[in-house]
Amino acid sequence: MVTITQQEVERRLTTVQCAICKQSSFAIDERFMGTDGDWRGICKKCFYTFPVHTDMEFYLRTQPDVPFHLKAISCTTCNHRGVDLDFRATLSVREAIYFVTCKGCKRQFPEKSSLEAFE
Length: 119
Ligand SMILES: [Zn+2]
Ligand SMILES: [Zn+2]
Fold this sequence. Notes:
This protein has helices at residues 6-13, 56-62, 66-72; strands spanning 26-28, 38-43, 49-53, 83-92, 95-102, 108-112. It is an alpha+beta fold. It has one domain (6-113).
């Protein structure tokens, strides 16, 4: 089930850089917005596209290591450990980003996923 909106995803993507041109201006390509939660992000500057995954309920169920990883992420603002995963984007083969929300202060920030680097 997808609970996040397209607008929210586009807003949160501005906190990361394009893997190619290093700009931070993205959109979701609506032609590829599947109901299964697999969307496609597109850089507005260089038109590079990358997968965005929004069905985190399914992802967490199929990737048992991820919840442990999320519990270990600490917020850089309040130092609380443990975040909620809102969606993830694979900006390049080496760069998967988790977009998370701190459970303590509700700050939203991107976190590089170390788990997926070795897939
Ligand atoms: Zn770009
Ligand atoms: Zn926090």
